[in-house]
Amino acid sequence: MNAEMQIETQDAARVDDPFALDADERRKRRRLWIVLGAIVVLVAGGLWFLTRGGEEQVPAAVQEQEEAGPAITVMVPGSATIEGEINATGTLAARREMPVGVQGSGGQVSRVLVDAGDWVNAGQILAVLDRSVQSQQVSQQRAQVRVAESDARLAQANLDRALKLVDRGFISTADVDRLTATRDAAVARVEVAKAQLGELQARTAQLSIVAPAAGLILERNIEPGQVVGGGTGAVFLMARGGEMELMAQLGEDDLARISTGVTAQVTPVGLDRTFTGQVWQIDPVIDSQSRQGTARIALSYAPGLKPGGFATATIASGAVVAPRLPESAIQDDDGQSYVYIVDKDDKIVRRDVTTGLITDDGIAIVDGLDGTERVVLRAAGFLKPGEKVSPQVQKRRK
């Protein structure tokens, strides 16, 4: 009780004493200012460390990067055998066209036995003309042959009997000579009659229009009832052996890179099939306006090859051993091709090059590189000779 009373007495004394209350408040405020000051010092120290200390580290990293140079991708192309290819387009046509016309005097068409697109053999009948008159003429001439043969047999028999009687003196030598002459004339008339029969048969055979060789019928220009003759023109158009060709249009440079006998892959428009052919002829004349020439690619018969159709061709143009680079690595300066390479000091060096064959895998470099250089693959337009770089080597293509 005494202690509680003392505390109450002290509190009552503080309330009654205003000076004692101010001193206590001042102590609390002093402690608050000390805490705030410590916080300000800590914050200021952190800011100083971030600004002053960071400035010493960041420039060092930047300086190191600047000294190494920008990172670029390079490759060592090496050398490889590159199969050259030339792409061309052209029109399909029959390699050897054979127009088939009417022989002799002609006549009226009675039957047409084939149509366009049919395959025919040599000697096969394509159409038949009316031969009613010629058949009668052949029959009449056969009868004339038989008459002539009968006269010849009679003349021979008369001569044989005369020769038996001449020894007995019943027939004179003059009579024998006359009978001999009669026999010879009769035999000759047989030969004449047979020759006339052969002529009529040949004329009749001409009324059948036949294929001169095996091949494919491309056009049919004849119909039953039509009257045709020697001046009618071609009634059928054939492709001998069914062989086709692609008349590929090429520029002067490409024509100079190919020769007869090289292979080519031909793909007609509308087909997903490729046909293998061979260049059999190169036109010796270049068109003065288009500056192009024609390479003729022979193709064996196949149902998908249609004259007049459009096709693309990939022609082999030989092989070279050279470095090969992607198109992105090659720059152009007024027609002069060049690349950027990285030397032993990791600096950019310009190198003029000569390009060659173009393939799906890259462009051949026929002069200017030996394949051991580190060639810049991309972003060469942002570089300049003598610039320091940090090369990153990419594996070369196999």
From TrEMBL:
Top-rank taxon, per record: Bacteria
Protein name: Efflux RND transporter periplasmic adaptor subunit
UniProt keyword Transmembrane, yes or no: yes
InterPro entries xrefs: Beta-barrel_RND_2 (IPR058792), BSH_CzcB-like (IPR058647), RND_pump_MFP (IPR006143), YknX-like_C (IPR058637)
Keywords: Membrane, Transmembrane, Transmembrane helix
NCBIfam families linked: RND_mfp
Domain (CusB-like beta-barrel) ranges: 248-317
Organism per entry: Alteriqipengyuania halimionae
